[in-house]
Amino acid sequence: MDTAQNEELKQIYQTLQSLSIVELDAIVQQIFTLRKQKMPSVLSDSETELLKKINIGLPDALQKRYRFLIKKRQAETLSEAEQAELIELTAYTETHNNQRLKYLIDLAQLRNISLDQLIDDLQLTPRLNVA
Question: Would you say the pTM of this structure is higher than 0.70?
Fold first, then answer.
């Protein structure tokens, strides 16, 4: 570290000394956030694999058919065969979502954080699967 940087750090330290504990805590949080942003993002093989599995969605054709059948049910024009298909697609979708939740839980445990924290970190937002 050169002399100019050393002097600058001394000035920053002197400024920090004059702050209240609340102000200092706020600065510390900002420093940790900045540090996290500057850190290279490297995932372990396990994290990478779980994230790949988490991000696998339902096939588009299946989603479209599912939404179509829901609309028909809401319009009360669903045939018995379509109702049976909707029940099957609902079960499949729920199984897929349950497996995805399991992967999220596994990733949270791997990172030693809560599921809520992981959801915040990944910026996941809940969606309703209704038409």
Answer: no
